[in-house]
């Protein structure tokens, strides 16, 4: 093919352009569609030709602009060999060079960060990346002074020589900041990053005072670590040494956020550098930290926690006004704090009416290995753009020590090029930055925050640094990284390098030493703190938890509602707007509920639950209900969200009756979550931790799905109060019941909650009637107590007529922790008392009726923890002649409540009474998978409840 042909060779078969980096072509095509004159002539002619390529559906190609260009280039990539673009023969060589310049710019934008100067230790040579060399595109030394028009392709000068362009590209994309953003599909976002980075060549231009302040923050970061290292030798603190620039980053983030209107920042981070953040960012008094090292700190919690798990809050002054800082408490599960922080932020946003998150900022600090390795990171990122969990974008900062935990071989640390690659799933931009260039770190932080505030999306600053000491201060890292730690031993330290740099710039030869001496003196006095921490500032949005402290679970609350209010609410939640067509099955549900509301039928579980929510929002208590399929309900019992059968759009095709119960009501929010348990439950816990006046409910699709959120349950819900003093009123609904459905979806693992129950840390209940769930949910809010509530909710009982309740049980009464026997028995005739909880009661009652037994009483324990000793003892004393007490349960003997409950029952038994067990034998699986075997076991355990005691018998 000759060069005078209208079509000429432009690309190699293995060109960078035809790999996974086709975004360059898409970007050029987007520019062409917006303004054909904005692209070079040869590209314009080529795209003009593409307009004649038919779309796959026969429509005009311009209606689907990406499809023709992607398909055309993909086809050329498959063909291999030489590739072609269109240009006129007269200026083919000039056109080829113009195109090559655009390819060169695109290459640097896409992969320039791989050649950036990011490693402070400089352990590895820069990789060979041919696409970053002009020769790859056919340029020679003779082209170095050729002038190209770059006004439409690179931000900066309108014309540049090839030499100038190469210098600009390398300064921008291959310096101490390496930017990744070209995978983003939003054109405006990409152009924003190009303008921001290229217009300044990714180089800061700070004043002398700014530079001195950065040095001051580095001095504080290093000074605290060295003081602790010499004063508390060998004690764990997870030192920040090697990553001191992180403190400068946090300082810049807070100060700049304040200028942009942010009033609250919630921070989540694990161990590394946490003590440094507490003292040098949040302003914790050093003497208080020293007291923890010396074990002289005041201890007023039942358990407490180690110092590098502690949270803290303070108010600091910024140029834009006061900013409240909260560092979330965090266990050793590292990234598990991520969704908790996001939930806390969302609660603060809702309280402020801050829909876009412009006043509240989440900041998550990660370690490189944890960020790449822990699944909760991905789950939390997946929440970022969803309606119920949106927080306006998170600023992520990675303290990247390049070896993670103790990995001795980089090949074992992860499967991706960068530890941050997981964020590409939500197209979050990443700024990799050399931790030895604190000015670059501060600039990257500025840009990250600016992007977040502009686009309300996540962004990452990856500070590539090192870890001077081991994983902890008792570790010997040279055992596994000998060569790396030889390099670290020779490193002067970021503070020293920066101080020397400022000295060469004429900012004072002794400046660095003076700062070190000043900080050391403050540490010796134990008085140094962040200047300016505000000690008397009180935000009007602060939550007052004092009404909920020091309360007991027995403190009463009036959970009944007047009959007139019952009927009014029932009418509102069963009425739909005119011209709204509900599904026939849903219409029947609404009609039945309307009859229940009028007292024409007993109330079922779904109506009882709805009425609890309706009465709460009508009384000013917001309700937030989330989980997989909660709108409809996994067992199709809830129907809190109605869908118009004639409209597809959800924004106009849905109706939520509970959002329309009163002219002035509290919000009712129902969220069908993503398919996640760990992140979603963590989010809801975080939300509840910052809003005691909202009923926050998370429902597992099946009770055993809580397995996927066990870390949240163990480390936060069960122990957060005794470790950290964090009061929380979250409610968990876990469908539980043995219905012959196999080992999965039978058990919510009640035994796990029983094992976790202590110190009055939670409530575990298993209600069996519609009125019980009504009173239980209302009790959670109307009484002055905030404790996690775990509800073992039923499945078959949702539609069991025996589990329905008359209106009278809603308009008077309260939640019964123990339900007395419903049968009229002569108490003195009773020889056996069967104690149970949950669905099995109805099997026992049916069997007793069939056997016509008048000497057996059945008690239902509806609250398993805290165990209601007073109520239970009162019921047991009604039967003084009963000799046998039997605990009956559906679950296997090593599961369920048996091992927990037997001691509580025994404590309340009368002299001479014997306690026995009726239930399935111990099992490694929660339930059998064969239907016939399930039926046999169920019959056997019910029969055993009425049979002679055998096996293990506990005598009073």
UniProtKB/TrEMBL annotation:
<dbReference type="Pfam" id="PF00676">
    <property type="entry name" value="E1_dh"/>
</dbReference>
<dbReference type="Pfam" id="PF02779">
    <property type="entry name" value="Transket_pyr"/>
</dbReference>
<dbReference type="Pfam" id="PF16870">
    <property type="entry name" value="OxoGdeHyase_C"/>
</dbReference>
<dbReference type="GO" id="GO:0045252">
    <property type="term" value="C:oxoglutarate dehydrogenase complex"/>
</dbReference>
<dbReference type="InterPro" id="IPR042179">
    <property type="entry name" value="KGD_C_sf"/>
</dbReference>
<protein>
    <recommendedName>
        <fullName>2-oxoglutarate dehydrogenase E1 component</fullName>
        <ecNumber>1.2.4.2</ecNumber>
    </recommendedName>
</protein>
<dbReference type="InterPro" id="IPR029061">
    <property type="entry name" value="THDP-binding"/>
</dbReference>
<dbReference type="GO" id="GO:0005829">
    <property type="term" value="C:cytosol"/>
</dbReference>
<dbReference type="GO" id="GO:0006099">
    <property type="term" value="P:tricarboxylic acid cycle"/>
</dbReference>
<keyword id="KW-0560">Oxidoreductase</keyword>
<dbReference type="GO" id="GO:0006096">
    <property type="term" value="P:glycolytic process"/>
</dbReference>
<dbReference type="InterPro" id="IPR011603">
    <property type="entry name" value="2oxoglutarate_DH_E1"/>
</dbReference>
<comment type="function">
    <text>E1 component of the 2-oxoglutarate dehydrogenase (OGDH) complex which catalyzes the decarboxylation of 2-oxoglutarate, the first step in the conversion of 2-oxoglutarate to succinyl-CoA and CO(2).</text>
</comment>
<dbReference type="InterPro" id="IPR031717">
    <property type="entry name" value="ODO-1/KGD_C"/>
</dbReference>
<dbReference type="GO" id="GO:0004591">
    <property type="term" value="F:oxoglutarate dehydrogenase (succinyl-transferring) activity"/>
</dbReference>
<keyword id="KW-0324">Glycolysis</keyword>
<comment type="subunit">
    <text>Homodimer. Part of the 2-oxoglutarate dehydrogenase (OGDH) complex composed of E1 (2-oxoglutarate dehydrogenase), E2 (dihydrolipoamide succinyltransferase) and E3 (dihydrolipoamide dehydrogenase); the complex contains multiple copies of the three enzymatic components (E1, E2 and E3).</text>
</comment>
<comment type="similarity">
    <text>Belongs to the alpha-ketoglutarate dehydrogenase family.</text>
</comment>
<dbReference type="GO" id="GO:0030976">
    <property type="term" value="F:thiamine pyrophosphate binding"/>
</dbReference>
<dbReference type="Pfam" id="PF16078">
    <property type="entry name" value="2-oxogl_dehyd_N"/>
</dbReference>
<dbReference type="InterPro" id="IPR001017">
    <property type="entry name" value="DH_E1"/>
</dbReference>
<dbReference type="InterPro" id="IPR032106">
    <property type="entry name" value="2-oxogl_dehyd_N"/>
</dbReference>
<keyword id="KW-0786">Thiamine pyrophosphate</keyword>
<dbReference type="InterPro" id="IPR005475">
    <property type="entry name" value="Transketolase-like_Pyr-bd"/>
</dbReference>
<feature type="domain" description="Transketolase-like pyrimidine-binding">
    <location>
        <begin position="603"/>
        <end position="800"/>
    </location>
</feature>
């Amino acid at each position: 093919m000759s060069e005078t042909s209208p079509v000429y060779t432009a690309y190699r078969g293995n060109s960078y352009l035809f790999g996974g980096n086709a975004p360059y072509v898409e970007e050029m095509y987007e520019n062409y569609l917006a303004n054909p004159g904005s692209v070079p002539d040869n590209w314009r002619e080529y795209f003009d030709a593409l307009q004649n390529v038919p779309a796959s559906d026969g429509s005009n190609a311009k209606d689907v602009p990406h499809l023709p260009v992607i398909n055309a280039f993909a086809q050329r990539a498959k063909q291999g060999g030489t590739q072609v673009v269109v240009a006129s023969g007269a200026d083919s060589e000039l056109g080829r060079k113009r195109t090559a310049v655009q390819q060169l710019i695109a290459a640097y934008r896409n992969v320039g960060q791989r050649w950036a100067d990011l490693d402070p230790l400089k352990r590895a040579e820069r990789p060979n990346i041919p696409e970053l060399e002009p020769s790859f595109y056919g340029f020679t030394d003779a082209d170095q002074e050729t002038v190209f028009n770059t006004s439409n392709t690179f931000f900066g000068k309108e014309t540049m020589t090839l030499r100038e362009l190469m210098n600009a590209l390398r300064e921008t994309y291959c310096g101490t900041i390496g930017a990744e953003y070209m995978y983003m599909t939003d054109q405006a976002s990409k152009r924003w990053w190009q303008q921001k980075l290229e217009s300044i060549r990714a180089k800061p231009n700070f004043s002398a005072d700014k530079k001195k302040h950065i040095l001051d923050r580095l001095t504080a970061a290093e000074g605290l670590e060295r003081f602790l290292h010499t004063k508390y030798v060998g004690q764990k603190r997870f030192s920040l040494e090697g990553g001191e620039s992180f403190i400068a980053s946090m300082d810049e983030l807070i100060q700049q956020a304040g200028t942009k209107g942010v009033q609250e920042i919630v921070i989540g981070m694990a161990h590394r550098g946490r003590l440094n953040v507490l003292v040098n960012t949040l302003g914790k008094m050093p003497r208080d930290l020293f007291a923890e090292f010396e074990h002289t700190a005041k201890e007023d919690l039942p358990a407490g926690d180690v110092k590098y798990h502690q949270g803290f809050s303070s108010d600091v002054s910024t140029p834009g006004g006061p900013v409240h800082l909260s560092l979330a408490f965090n266990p050793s599960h590292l990234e598990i704090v991520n969704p908790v922080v996001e939930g806390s932020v969302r609660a603060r946003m809702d309280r402020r009416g801050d829909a876009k998150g412009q006043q509240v900022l989440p900041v998550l600090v990660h370690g490189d290995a944890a960020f790449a390795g822990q699944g909760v990171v991905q789950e939390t990122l997946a929440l970022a753009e969803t309606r119920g969990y949106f927080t306006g974008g998170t600023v992520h900062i990675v303290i990247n020590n390049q070896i993670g935990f103790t990995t001795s071989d980089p090949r074992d640390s992860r499967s991706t090029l960068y530890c941050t690659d997981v964020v590409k799933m939500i197209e979050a931009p990443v700024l990799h930055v050399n931790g030895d260039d604190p000015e670059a770190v501060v600039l990257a932080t500025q840009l990250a925050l600016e992007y977040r505030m502009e686009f309300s999306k996540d962004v990452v600053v990856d500070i590539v640094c090192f870890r001077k000491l081991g994983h902890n201060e008792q570790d010997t890292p040279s055992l596994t990284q000998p060569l790396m730690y030889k390099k670290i031993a020779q490193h002067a330290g970021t503070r020293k390098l920066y101080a020397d740099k400022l000295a060469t710039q004429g900012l004072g030869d002794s400046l660095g030493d003076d700062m070190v001496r000043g900080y050391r003196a403050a540490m010796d006095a134990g008085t140094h703190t962040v200047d300016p921490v505000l000690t008397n500032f009180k935000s009007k949005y602060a939550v007052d938890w004092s009404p909920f402290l020091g309360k007991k679970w027995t403190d009463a609350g009036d959970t009944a509602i007047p009959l007139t209010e019952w009927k009014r609410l029932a009418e509102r939640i069963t009425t739909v707007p005119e011209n709204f067509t509900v599904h026939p099955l849903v219409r029947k549900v609404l009609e039945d509920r309307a009859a229940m509301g009028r007292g024409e039928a007993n109330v079922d579980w779904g109506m009882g639950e709805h009425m609890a929510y309706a009465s709460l929002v009508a009384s000013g208590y917001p309700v937030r209900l989330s989980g997989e399929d909660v709108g409809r309900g996994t067992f199709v019992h809830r129907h809190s969200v109605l869908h118009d059968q004639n409209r597809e759009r959800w924004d106009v095709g849905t109706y939520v009756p509970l959002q329309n119960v009163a002219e002035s009501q509290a919000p009712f929010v129902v969220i069908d979550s993503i398919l996640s348990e760990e992140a979603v439950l963590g989010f809801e816990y975080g939300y509840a931790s910052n809003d005691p006046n909202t009923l926050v409910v998370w429902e597992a699709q099946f009770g055993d799905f809580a397995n996927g959120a066990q870390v949240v349950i163990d480390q936060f819900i069960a122990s957060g109060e005794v470790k950290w003093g964090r009061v929380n009123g979250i409610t968990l609904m876990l469908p539980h019941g043995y219905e012959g459905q196999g080992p999965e979806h039978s058990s919510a693992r009640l035994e796990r909650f029983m094992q976790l129950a202590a110190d009055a840390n939670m409530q575990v209940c298993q209600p069996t009637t519609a009125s019980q769930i009504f009173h239980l949910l209302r009790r959670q809010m109307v009484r002055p107590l905030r404790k996690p509530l775990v509800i073992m909710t039923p499945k078959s009982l949702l539609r069991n007529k025996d589990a329905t309740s008359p209106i009278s049980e809603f308009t008077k009464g309260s939640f019964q922790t123990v339900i007395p026997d419903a049968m009229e028995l002569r108490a003195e005739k009773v020889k056996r008392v069967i104690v149970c909880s949950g669905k099995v009661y109805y099997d026992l009652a049916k069997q007793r009726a069939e056997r016509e037994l008048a000497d057996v009483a059945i008690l239902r324990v509806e609250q398993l923890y805290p165990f209601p000793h007073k109520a239970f003892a009162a019921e047991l004393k009604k039967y003084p002649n009963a000799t046998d007490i039997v605990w009956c349960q559906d679950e296997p003997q090593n599961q369920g409540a048996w091992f927990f409950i037997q001691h509580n029952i025994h404590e309340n038994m009368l002299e001479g009474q014997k306690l026995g067990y009726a239930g399935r034998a111990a099992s490694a699986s929660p339930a059998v998978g064969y239907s016939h075997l399930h039926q046999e076991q169920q019959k056997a355990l019910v029969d055993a409840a009425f049979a002679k005691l055998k096996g293990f018998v506990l005598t009073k």
